[in-house]
Structures are given as structure tokens and as C-alpha cells.
Prior knowledge:
The strands form 3 sheets. A 5-stranded antiparallel sheet has the order 9-8-7-10-11. Strands 3-6-4-5 form a 4-stranded antiparallel sheet, covered by helices on one side. Strands 1-2 form a two-stranded parallel ribbon. The protein has 3 domains: 44 residues, no CATH class; 63 residues, ATP-grasp fold, A domain (Dna Ligase, domain 1, 2-Layer Sandwich), CATH 3.30.1490.20; 108 residues, D-amino Acid Aminotransferase, Chain A, domain 1, CATH 3.30.470.20. It is α+β, with helices and mostly antiparallel strands. A hairpin with a 2-residue loop joins strand 10 and strand 11. Helices cover 32% and strands 23% of the residues. It contains 8 helices and 11 strands.
Amino acid sequence: MECLNLHDFDVVWLRQDPPFDMGYITTTHLLDFLVPDTLVVNNPFWVRNFPEKLLMLKFSDLIPPTTIARDLDVLKKFRTANGDVIVKPLYGNGGAGVFRLQPEDQNIASLHELFCNINTEPLIIQKYLADVVKGDKRVILVDGEPIGAINRIPAAGETRSNMHVGGRPEKIALTKRDKEICSIIGPTLRKRGQLFVGIDIIGDYLTEINVTSPTGLQELDRFDGINAAGLIWDAIEKKL
């Protein structure tokens, strides 16, 4: 195996799949040593400090009712106020561990107990968005600008639309609302060196900002002929 000095590279691509655990976090710390001499995409400091389900909290006007908590009473209070809710691990990925609790469901305490026995992290609870049956849109942004989108339709009997768990990708165009959301979050992404980002939109709401390892490029190329990889590298070259 050949050992290479990453300081000799113009660009290092950070595309390490979740989980967002200490292994992932350690990688971002190590890559911090390269900045600013080497361009790291995405900037590791802000990848570490802006996990997908936390970064969206900076844009509270764009997201559905959301609470992050570990205390069961707080979760119950949110559920009472919002009825139909989604509960998921704060640092999960690919749809793993995502549960829908409808108003008549009596399992919130058991679910809380299950998660608390697995790790020490808080949970994220959000109001369920009925528009998810029409699809969960993945919008790809390059240096803060949207280049296209795909729609992901949940499989029959599923709440989750992630392609990893059977969601079906479909061709879709960006709406006026999608572009509005991108125009609001784009400057922050650009300022923080998040050059390649995938955001999730259900109906009119932003639900996640994926900065770690977004998917959807192949589908975007297949549906719309958009060479997202080429656009990403064009943006990188402008920064060198």
C-alpha cells in the first residue's frame, strides 16, 4: 500500500458514508489539518458542526414543527400538540429507525425506551407531513445553487421514501417553493464550504440538509440528462 501526503493534493473529496459516529467525526478532525492549503469538499469543519438534522434548525421558518429531545415527557407533549408524528434517531441515515406514530398509537414510551437502550443521543420528533405520499423530493445544490431534483415515492405500506429502503425515484421539476428554499439556505451553504449538498423537501417544507454523502446524482442524470458530477467539478476548479 502506498502512503500519500494529502497536503500534496489540490482537492480531497470527503464522501464517507454515515453513520455519523466517532469514526466519521475523527475523519473530519484529521482533514481539518489540510485546510486551507488543500480544498476539502465538503469543508470538514462544517460537515462536523452541521449534521443534516441539526443544520435545518437554522431555518426554522422552512421546516415542519420539530423538537429534539431525550426526555419522554417532552416527546409526549410534542406528540399531544401535533398528533401524527415521525420519530427518528438524530444521527440515523438511509431511513433506518424512522417510525410514524399515529394518534391512536400507544408505543411512544416503548420506542423511547428502545432508543435510550441503544445510545445516549436525543431523538428528533417531527409533525408527520401527509404530502409524503406524493413523494419526498431530493434537490441537489452545487455551491449553494440548485441544479435539479428527483422525487422519491414511498413503497406500498411504507412511510419512508429513501431509495435505500425501496423508495422509487421519479423525474420531477423544481417548483417556485423549492427555489425559494434554496435561495434562503444557499448563502449559508456557500459561506461554510458545503459545495455538494442534497436537501429533502416534502410539500412546502424543508426536512433535511444532507452534507455528508448525498445520493441522487445518477437518477438526475438518467431523468434529465444533468451531469451533476461535471457541474460539481466545474465548481471545484473555480475555487482552485
